[in-house]
Design goal:
This protein has 19 helices and 2 strands. It starts with 7 loop residues before the first helix and ends with a helix. It is an all-alpha fold.
Length: about 500
């Protein structure tokens, strides 16, 4: 059978044809790379990784080889072979059907407002508390709402606005990590390093269980530009190039600061929430300030540079949320246009070319997450951080359990489709790539839903603030997941009129 390009228009419903005409083709190669960098290099997970010690570096290298590489290849092939708006939703639908794709798109989408309203917001609040002034109960809510809705606004307006946030976020990452690393070297030259013994890098089952779910979440995001495939100027040329560039950049921009934090920060300051912030305050004392047993205090140039670093840190958090929500919202809108969700979610703004309804709903979900998490944790930031980060990662990982196997299924069911980028080695390698990436998604899911599984005692792996509260913690993870799946079934039922109209149009021969 001769190969042919995938026909995007043949896939669309009549409703999708109508709404997609409002899309604006603006996404360049640079924009796609910025989206990947903002998605993959998230500072909210640095503290959690460094709190696990030097073994996190070992697992980072290991996962870089046995997960990151095959995952990048998978996204490069699927993104260029099936360049349709809503990428992962389309891949899963073609492979496993509309219902599986609907649940996948919902899990993928909802993990992002949960993350924005949860881990990203509380980390931004912690940065303000640490570097500027304690916000207080009311101030924290005000700042959290401003942070969330600034991110939502960037996704609502045309991509010309959203891309500014992504480009600024990408450059701030490079500058902040570069300056942080340079300062760490200056600090080491003046004060020496805390030092990490060779034995500390030794992997263990406990560090595997605690670290790999966070690393999985930190290393995914290559498929995000494919969510906006039909807004890209050159999707088939840009996707593989950006995957390679994003992979190389991520390895450097993630590994260097994690190692620097481990070298300069005393173990007592390696906390899941404040690890990177504590490291900044300590090493920036070389410009002005002093360190004590209780913490670090910045003065003069150290205070100014520290405040600038804190602002940059908050901007990176914001751009991370914008990148993910910008992509995931487009995927969920495509699902609605295909009859996998209520039709209203698929409405695209004539003026901005963005899925306005989904953008606003994402903001509401993020806001409710912030209020609910504060209420459940009684204002305890560390508890709040653990709960919402766990829910965000587990829902995301569940979505990948369908996305990753789609590669192999489509090699058989759509073998005739031309693949501008094709994983070498034949179907045996394709099977291996799908199996390895799916296995990591499964490990991540189980590790998040039941922390400490496979280690002894398992309860020792419960997140900060949850010691002795196993079942209460499990409820905070299981209940949102169950509610999400129930909501997915209900929303799928509400998409019935769209599916019925699409069948009727197909039977009558209407495009």
């Amino acid at each position: 059978m001769s190969s042919q390009d995938f026909d995007v228009t043949a896939f669309d419903t009549h409703l999708a044809h109508r709404e997609k005409r409002k899309l604006k083709v603006l996404v360049s190669r640079v924009d796609g790379l910025a989206m990947i960098l903002c998605a993959l290099i998230g500072f909210d997970t640095f503290g959690k990784l460094t709190s696990e010690g030097a073994a996190a570096v070992t697992w980072l290298i290991f996962m870089g080889l046995v997960f990151f590489v095959p995952y990048a290849l998978l996204c490069a092939e699927l993104g260029t072979a099936f360049p349709a708006q809503g990428g992962p939703y389309v891949w899963v639908k073609l492979a496993f059907g509309r219902f599986v794709a609907a649940l996948t798109a919902l899990l993928y989408w909802i993990s992002n407002p949960l993350w924005l309203g949860g881990a990203l917001t509380i980390t931004a609040v912690a940065a303000v508390d640490s570097f500027f002034a304690p916000l207080g109960p009311l101030g924290r809510y005000v700042f959290a709402l401003a942070f969330i809705w600034t991110g939502v606004a960037a996704t609502v307006f045309t991509f010309r606005v959203g891309r500014v946030v992504l480009l600024v976020g990408a450059w701030v990452r490079v500058v902040l990590i570069g300056f942080f690393t340079l300062t760490a070297l200056l600090y080491a030259a003046r004060h020496g390093v805390h030092g990490v013994g060779t034995g500390a890098f030794a992997p263990s089952m406990g560090s595997f269980v605690a670290t790999t779910p966070i690393l999985f979440f930190a290393l995914v995001g290559f498929e995000l530009p494919s969510e906006a495939s039909e807004e890209m100027l050159d999707v088939r040329g840009d996707v593989p190039v950006n995957v390679v560039r994003g992979a190389l950049s991520t390895i450097v921009l993630y590994g260097v600061p994690i190692l620097a934090v481990l070298l300069v920060l005393p173990p007592r300051q390696l906390t899941s929430l404040g690890g990177f912030l504590n490291a900044v305050k300590l090493i920036f004392t070389v410009y002005g300030g002093h360190a004590t047993a209780a913490g670090s205090s910045l003065t003069g140039a150290g205070l100014i540079l520290g405040d600038l670093a804190a602002v940059g840190f908050i901007l990176t958090l914001l751009s991370s949320g914008v990148s993910w929500i910008m992509g995931a919202n487009r995927g969920w809108a495509v699902a609605a246009l295909d009859g996998a969700a209520p039709r209203s979610f698929g409405v695209i703004s004539e003026r901005y070319g963005t899925p306005l309804a989904v953008d606003l709903v994402a903001g509401v979900v993020a806001t409710l997450t912030m209020f609910a998490a504060y209420w459940l944790s009684h204002g305890n930031a560390a508890k709040y951080f653990s709960v919402v980060l766990g829910v965000a990662i587990s829902t995301s990982a569940l979505a990948y359990l369908a996305i990753f196997p789609a590669l192999t299924k489509l090699r058989y069911s759509h073998a005739h489709v031309h693949r501008p980028f094709r994983i070498a080695g034949g179907k045996a390698v394709v099977w291996l790539v799908s199996a390895v990436t799916t296995a990591w998604a499964l490990v991540c899911t189980v590790g998040l839903l039941w922390p400490g599984v496979g280690s002894s005692p398992a309860d020792a792996s419960l997140p900060t603030g949850w010691a002795g509260q196993r079942w209460r913690f499990e409820a905070t993870q299981a209940v949102p997941l169950i509610l999400t799946l129930v909501l997915g079934v209900l929303w799928y039922a509400q998409g019935t009129p769209t599916r019925r109209a699409a069948r009727a149009a197909l039977e009558s021969g209407v495009a």
